[in-house]
Write a structure and sequence with these properties.
The complex is a heterodimer of chains A (about 170) and B (about 260).
Chain A: H1 23-55, H2 67-88, H3 93-98, E1 100-103, H4 112-124, H5 131-134, H6 141-146, E2 149-152
Antiparallel strand pairs in A: 1-2
Chain B: H1 2-6, H2 17-58, H3 60-67, H4 70-76, H5 79-85, H6 88-94, H7 97-103, H8 106-112, H9 115-121, H10 124-130, H11 133-140, H12 143-153, H13 156-163, H14 166-176, H15 179-190, H16 192-200, H17 203-229
The chains are: A mainly alpha (about 170), B mainly alpha (about 260).
């Protein structure tokens, strides 16, 4: 606690802060993110339907969704969502709920290109997450290749005791 | 002539005067011996008793002092030779010093000593130079008892109030203490964040906290299980570079399987 103020964290959680998260926590966070993407897609679909209804109410039918289009939409939404979340705060909503943060090779916040590459990698090869169970450093395939880490970080951004990342953001 | 007298001719040999004279001589010798023994036995009894009575009445010491020239006697004694024959160590070994000391009237001896004169002749400075006074005091003085006695005699509160500049003292103490760090230690010791969380936290934040802790516990369990399956030894190295968020991280404690969310 010296110099960094009083930690608002529960005492039992403090030893784990800054450690790479394990498989279960990250799977739960990924599931929450998947649900968020699903909700966004559903919202988009409903918005599109509402727009079509407003344009031509008499001949309105719910628009057909081709599998390819749905997958492509989901892919794009997922990549954009992950990229923006990691770049802005280092956390997606799932990470926020589970107290995780994505950091770069030296513990700094992710940059835009790094976030985008990692988001693409995760969207293309989500099974790489399972490598965490095997890795002695709790790293997924994406983390191993891109030298990123996903750590336990329960501190809200800007809270006392939260170190400023090396890139200053 | 004597031969004839002792062994007269024509007289049978058993009747020779030599025979009965010899027998008479032997009996006389036996008689003398028994008389001497009897006399010695009686003297053994008689002489000590008589001598005791004589000495008791004669005041021998007085007579010795009066009639004997002791100086001449002592001068005739070779004291050096006597001392040379004396085994002093043996004598000292046989002396019961404690008994001797017990019989000495130390108080009367001390009364006769002029301590002031003795002290005046002592070179106190040289004595003090040779003594490690600090070690002596620490080893032999009951400092606690001394301190207690001193403190009992003085009113420490009034002494401090009169003689100590309390303002300066407080300023010096405050200058040395890192009040912020002290406050943080106190807050950490009472776990103030936990108290605040308990007083203001919602059910949702408790749920999230419980889910996170259970997630961490599950992570560790899965990691251990996989490591055991892969026959790995040692712990995983999960510390991320530059991501240490708690400057003073306490030891990890086992996480209970079910976090109490109702707190």
């Amino acid at each position: 606690m010296s110099g960094g103020g009083v930690s608002p964290l529960p005492r039992e959680a403090r030893p784990y802060q800054g450690q790479r998260a394990g498989l279960v926590t990250r799977l739960v966070a990924a599931a929450i993110d998947g649900a968020v993407v699903g909700l966004v897609l559903l919202g988009g679909y409903l918005a599109l339907a509402g727009l079509l209804f407003l344009v031509d109410p008499r001949s309105f039918t719910f628009p057909d969704t081709h599998l390819i289009v749905s997958l492509a939409s989901g892919f794009v939404v997922l990549v954009v969502y992950l990229t923006i979340s990691w770049r802005v705060s280092g956390r997606t909503y799932g990470c926020l709920v589970m107290g995780l943060r994505v950091v770069g090779p030296r513990g700094q916040n992710m940059r835009l290109v790094g976030s985008l590459v990692r988001a693409l990698f995760c969207a293309v090869f989500p099974v790489g997450l399972l490598w965490i169970a095997v890795s002695r450093a709790n790293r997924s395939v994406q983390d191993t290749v891109l030298r990123t880490s996903v750590v336990y970080d329960w501190q809200p951004r800007g809270a006392p005791g939260h170190p400023t990342p090396p890139d200053g953001t | 002539m004597t031969q004839v007298a002792l062994r007269p001719p024509l007289v049978p040999q058993p009747l020779h005067p030599e025979r009965w004279l010899g027998r008479l001589g032997r009996e006389g010798a036996d008689r003398r011996l028994s008389i001497r023994r009897e006399l010695s036995r009686r003297l053994d009894v008689l002489v000590p008793a008589v001598l005791t009575e004589v000495l008791r009445r004669a005041h021998l010491t007085e007579m010795l002092v009066r009639y004997v020239d002791l100086d001449t006697v002592v001068a005739a004694v070779d004291l050096d030779a006597a001392a040379a024959r004396l085994d002093v160590d043996d004598v000292v070994r046989r002396v019961d010093v404690d008994a001797v000391v017990d019989r000495v009237a130390v108080d009367s001896v001390v009364d006769r000593v002029d301590v002031g004169a003795v002290v005046r002749r002592v070179d106190v400075d040289s004595v003090l130079d040779r003594i490690d006074l600090t070690a002596v005091v620490l080893g032999r003085v009951d400092l606690d008892a001394v301190l207690d006695a001193v403190l009992n005699r003085i009113d420490l509160t009034s002494v401090v109030l009169e003689r100590v500049d309390l303002d300066a003292l407080v300023q010096a103490v405050l200058a040395r203490i890192d009040l912020v760090a002290l406050a943080e230690e106190v807050i950490d010791a009472v776990d103030l964040p936990e108290i605040i969380r308990e007083s203001t936290g919602s059910m949702a934040s408790d749920t999230v906290r419980g889910a996170r802790m259970q997630g961490i516990a599950a992570d560790e369990a899965v990691g251990r299980a996989v490591d055991r399956l892969l026959l790995r030894r040692g712990r995983r190295t999960t510390q991320a570079p530059g991501a240490g968020l708690s400057p003073e991280q306490p030891e990890k404690t086992p996480i209970p399987a079910q976090t109490d969310r109702t707190r």
